[in-house]
Amino acid sequence: MKDVAKEAGVALGTVSKVVNGLPVGDSYRIRVEAAIQKLHYQVNSYAQGLKANKTYTVALLIPNTIDPFYASLTYYINVALMKKRYRMLLCATDYDPRQEQEYVTMAQQNKVDGIIGLTYNPDLDTVAWLEDYLSKFENTVLVVSHDRHFLDSVCTHTLDIDYNKLTLFAGNYSFWYESSQLALRQQQQANKKAEEKRKELLEFIQRFSANVAKSKQTTSRKKMLEKLNVEEIQPSSRRYPGIIFTPNREPGNKILEVKGLSASIDGEVLFKDVNFQVEKGDKIAFLSHDPRAMTALFEIVTGNRKPDAGTYEWGQTITTAYLPLDNTGFFNTDLSLVDWLSQYSNDNSEIYLKGFLGKMLFSGEEVLKKASVLSGGEKMRCMIARMMMTDANTLVLDSPTNHLDLESIQAFNNTLQSFKGNLLLSSHDHEFIQTVCNRIIELTPNGTIDKLMDYDDYITDAKVLAAREKMYS
Predict the structure, then answer these.
(1) Is the pLDDT of residue 50 over 50?
(2) Which residues of 136-174 are buried (b: 16+ CB within 10 A; e: fewer)?
(3) 216 to each of 136, 150, 225, 293, how far by Cα in Å?
(4) Cα-based distances in Å from 13 to 21, 40, 74, 358, 442
(5) Whole-angstrom Cα distance, residue 379 to residue 401?
């Protein structure tokens, strides 16, 4: 938001007030609106094209805690709609999709034609409900989300903010990502003839179009892809972090053995009598209706918390790296990023440390900023850099996609798919679990469910569904 304040010639607080709809002088509001439109969004033309021939009613659902970028984007979509005499009918703070009837009733009473929806880190069951609901919704939906599976399941178009302009593409997130990556590879192949590049892109579109059979909007999505102009596909200007984990030794046959573990908080049972053995090659996703259960388990097996009962034992060949849910304590310091990272490294040379920070997209003067002033996403990238330096052969990840942007999530996802060691993780990201993990362990107050299968099979298996209902009853 600093660039907006600078462009408008106003204080940062003034920008915040405009974005959040608080009263400011007309001259300030006009300057801020013009600055944001110039620098980022160019929303007016898109909003006008939604339904240019009729009054368009939109429900705006906003969570209580929201990134300033999303706040400003939705605010300016609001402004654009208002200028066209469209009405913003439904505004809700701290929106919970599970309150289905309340919001559906409000929408029906007000004859809502469309929804602008923003979700912030809900649990997997809630995401699945919202995904199913919106996929059946017959009118316009604008979604801002870092959940790639959600975007792929719900969206028929992708609205990309890049090169200081806003562009609408046919296809979902995965199509946009794969096609932009293909265009980037082609750009780097300077000697390839233009006709060969066009043929390659057309073949990609045909393959992707053939793979939409699982979509809940198969027919419409396929038609949109078939109409896509190849010239519209351009390489993205986005930068992806270089997340690389290189185990210093191959794990032996004994990874981790857990016997009779139990944990509770203030007398409330999180899990009890948990028994499992991690096998070589296991990449395990841990699930629970209570996310505190996964955090408690990870804190126990990493030595940061004592169990109520039970034991655990790591194999002698195992080295671990842990990404905790709460990293606040790591950043209560005024050390620069270079000095902060040096605390966890055997090699304290600046070149070595800056190399890891560079992989995490910190460059130039950024490596000298204080650790205490980092954003949530920057802290996560620093924690990942810290993990990479350990060369561990077993990773323990508690909600690894929290605070990360889509580029970082995608890079993290890609590297974990090819990681040669073992993995224990919890996540609210469906795509992350489905593409990385080969085993599911669900922790409940009445026992565990342990299945050697991928996540999509787990959530649709009749025996598993029956076991889950029994365990949580």
Answers:
(1) no
(2) eeeeebbbbbbbbbbbbbbbeebbbeeeeebeebbbbbb
(3) 8, 12, 15, 33
(4) 12, 19, 18, 31, 45
(5) 12
Query: How large is the average pLDDT for residues 273-293?
Result: 95
The token pair at 20 is 């959040």
Give the strand pairing for 114-118 and 57-61. parallel
Q: Write the CB contacts of 457 (distance below 8 Å, at least 6 apart in sequence).
A: none
| 26 three-class SS | helix
100-113: burial string, b at 16+ Cβ within 10 Å, e else: eeebeeebeeeebb
Nearest CA to 200 among 233, 225, 157?
233
CA distances from 53 to 20, 28, 48 (A): 29, 32, 9
Q: Of 354 and 150, which is predicted with more confidence? A: 354
pLDDT value at residue 172: 78
CA separation for the pair 249, 106 (Å, rounded):
58
Of 85, 80, 165, the C-alpha closest to 116 is 80
Alpha carbon distance 27, 76 (integer Å) = 17
Task: Classify residue 406 by burial, with Cβ atoms within 10 Å: 0-12, 13-18, 19+.
Answer: middle
3-state secondary structure of 448: strand
Please give the share of the chain, as a percent, with pLDDT higher than 70. 66
CA distance 429 to 394: 20
Please say if the pLDDT value at position 241 is more than 50. yes
Per-residue pLDDT band at 13 (split at 50, 70, 90) = low
Q: 412 near 243, Cβ under 8 Å?
A: yes
CA distance linking residue 197 with residue 209, whole number of Å: 18
pLDDT of residue 67: 43
**Confidence at 439, pLDDT banded by 50, 70, 90:** very high
Selection from 18, 126, 29 nearest residue 75 by Cα: 18
**SS3 of residue 145 by DSSP:** coil
Ramachandran category for residue 9: left, alpha or beta (phi over 0 → left; psi -120 to 50 → alpha): left
